[in-house]
Amino acid sequence: MEILRHVVVLLHLVGFAILFGAWVAEAVSRRIRFTRVMDWGLALAGLAGLILAAPWGIEYELNYVKLGIKLGILVVIGALLGIGSARQRRTGSLPSAMFWLVGILTLTNAAIAVLW
Ligand code: HEM
What we know:
elongated
């Protein structure tokens, strides 16, 4: 059970790496745009996160305030990616605030996970 949980943590981290890596790749290339890879990373991190939010394979209490905040941030990132991608398709460009917010909020969620 514990090893299975660790596998799900690994998938959660892979999702984070895909989302944040895809975002950094665009940022350093000075391309203010969202890509499908970001959606896949968010979906994987979110799905694995929800599975981890259930208390199995651990002997300690989960911090549900922390998890609730992470879930809220994930929903905001999802909304930004969804609305931003639609706008990008329609107008050909993305407001830079939406782009930067996705990177900042993704890093914020990782920081909450590690530092709280
Ligand atoms: C973009 C969204 C997210 C990012 C970037 C993210 C990032 C991370 C990172 C980097 C860790 C590893 C922390 C460590 O091992 O010290 C972690 C762990 C964890 N995350 Fe997330 N997370 C996200 C969303 C979520 C969501 C939505 C949930 C659930 C509501 C969640 C639940 C968890 C749990 C329970 C752990 C601890 C796993 C364990 O050690 O058993 N995460 N997250």
